[in-house]
Amino acid sequence: MTTATSSTLESINPATGQPIGSVPVTPVGEIDAVVARAREAQKAWGALSTAERVEMLRPVAKAIEARADEIGDLMTSEMGKPTVEGRGEAAYAASCVPGALDSIMEALAPEHLEDQAVETTLYYDPYGVCGVITPWNFPFLMPQQTVLPALVAGNTVVLKPSEETPLTGQAFADIYNEFLPEGVLQIIHGDGEQGRALVQSDVNLIAFVGSRATGQHILQSAGGGLKRVILELGGKDPMIVLDDADLDEAADFAVFNSFRNCGQVCVSTERIYVEDGIADKFEQAVIKRVGDFVVGNGAEEGTTHGPMVSTRQKEMVLEQLETAKQQGAVVSCGDTPMEGNFVAPTVLTGLNHDMDIMHAETFGPIACIMRVKDEDEAVTLANDTPYGLGAAVFSGDTDRAANLARRMTAGMIGINKGCGGAKGSPWVGAQQSGYGFHGGTHGHRQFTQVRIVSVPKS
Ligand code: NAD
Questions:
Q1: Which one of 79, 266, 269, 438 would you pick to mutate in the ligand 1 pocket, going by the greatest count of ligand atoms within 8 A of its CB?
Q2: Is it the case that residue 234 has pLDDT exceeding 90?
Q3: What atom in ligand 1 is closest to the CA of residue 196?
Q4: Torsion sign over Cα 257, 258, 259, 260
Q5: Closest CA to 199 of 221, 232, 180
Q6: 130 a catalytic residue
Q7: Are 354 and 321 in contact, with CB atoms under 8 Å apart?
Q8: Distance, CA of 259 to CA of 265 (rounded, Å)
Q9: At residue 52, what are phi and psi to the nearest 5 degrees?
């Protein structure tokens, strides 16, 4: 959480209200000069081979690993996630680097095509300068997942991390810059004003991770210059629990994925549709598990759930909860008033699709369970959303679940698990959860301009 003046962003621990550090805000008038430096640096960076760039980036993994606890603790104090999750995010980021470098290099290797008359080489070239704009919920991982493919492709990057987590963003850039030539990765600080200025500057590509509303602004703003955009946006992920599901497994996942990071995860389970026959037992299993949570300062041992990132985020969540209650939702547990930026993990039942909470992204610690008569009703309601990020189906019959999964409009669907795919899979939001995507061969290539050179066959 931060407070801002026009010249400084002061980072505040959302659990304690204490300041933990500050960064200078980048004046909007300076952003064009930052982008011009990036363009100059791109000439030499883009002229290196992909393998040379990859070798320069390899040591980043060990550098992050060596400081994973320190970076993790910074995340805990800056946005509230418990120590184990903060340190886990940093360690995971370190572990991803070698595989990501190899898979990006492989995806961007030139390809050869030929027919009877022509031989063609297909190249994956850098666009030039890439503006990267990221959110606060995974404040180290989100910059990395976007910056790495941009850099390996030969683009230079201007990163604007979230105004809620500027210190983590700065730590990210500092580590990478130990190994990169000057100007290849620059960071600017600020809020939407700086983000807007970056989109309007002379960048060639904007890679954005954040809310659907901001993504819509960016797409409109970038359209004038026909700039390339990759948008990874919000979601309202459904989970379907069929009557033959393993109840414990389904309840474990529902609780984990509704409340992880206090629900501040793009692929949080935000809507649960459970078949009538097992609904009583499923609701009881969820409520029992939520009773084990320990809400508090994420830095304290035993805490399972920290504060919301900010007072604003808490207010948005409580407002949705209040409206849901007025519209007839039943509070089955939680909803107890809490001091500071904390929100009590809450389970809502008795829901129907006329209620606002079944449609707007909540991004908070609320599990919404709605009963359905059968799988047709479940899939119809699951698809009743403009979003399309992740989804989950729980069933004892994998074929039944797989058939249902193919009727769903989400981009990533997990059967008896979360939505992430096997190594090499893209991270892809369908419908209004994404515009372009990251990861996997096809995602890596989105940071490049494809060009072909053809010669006649002699
Ligand atoms: P946000 O859209 O409010 O802000 C994201 C970033 O955009 C911040 O750096 C912000 O300063 C900047 N920004 C704000 N207005 C801007 C503008 N007009 N032009 C350019 N930049 C602007 O999102 P948030 O609250 O930081 O993050 C939460 C959202 O991110 C949720 O909707 C969540 O689902 C989504 N998210 C998606 C993914 C994914 O992989 N699809 C991953 C993480 C988070």
A1: 266
A2: yes
A3: 19
A4: positive
A5: 221
A6: no
A7: no
A8: 9
A9: -65, -40
**C-alpha torsion sign, points 260, 11, 185, 133:** positive
Are the C-beta atoms of 185 and 178 separated by less than 8 Å?
no
Distance CA 132, CA 125 (A): 18
Structural contact between residues 136 and 457, judged by C-beta atoms closer than 8 angstroms: no
Query: For residue 226, with 0-12 CB atoms within 10 Å meaning exposed, 13-18 middle and 19 or more buried, which class applies?
Result: exposed
Question: Running DSSP on this structure, what letter comes out for residue 25?
Answer: P
The ligand 1 atom nearest the CA atom of 361: 32
End-to-end CA distance of the chain: give it in Å, rounded: 65
Of the CA atoms within 13 Å of residue 127, those in its CB half-sphere come to: 23
Structure tokens at 20: 């933990």
Q: Is the CB of 310 under 6 A from ligand 1?
A: no
What is the pLDDT, as a whole number, of residue 281? Answer: 98
pTM over 0.90: yes
Let me know: does 306 contact 275? Beta carbons within 8 Å: no
Q: What does the pLDDT look like over 263-309, one tens digit per residue?
A: 999 999 999 999 999 999 999 999 999 999 999 999 999 999 999 99
Q: Which domains does the chain have, with CATH numbers?
A: 2-233+431-456 (3.40.605.10), 237-415 (3.40.309.10)
Tens of pLDDT along 335-375?
999 999 999 999 999 999 999 999 999 999 999 999 999 99
Catalytic one among 130, 262, 266, 333? 266
Active site residue 232: yes
Strand, helix or coil for residue 76: helix
Nearest to 285 by CA among 144, 150, 394: 394
Neighbours of 24 (CB within 10 A): 12
Q: Can you tell me the distance from the alpha carbon of 166 to that of 172, in angstroms, rounded to the nearest whole number?
A: 10
Cα separation, 80 vs 89, whole angstroms: 13
Q: Ligand 1 pocket test: which of 164, 201, 208, 209 has the largest number of ligand atoms within 8 Å of its C-beta?
A: 209
In terms of DSSP bridges, do strands 448-456 and 346-349 run parallel, antiparallel, or are they unpaired? unpaired
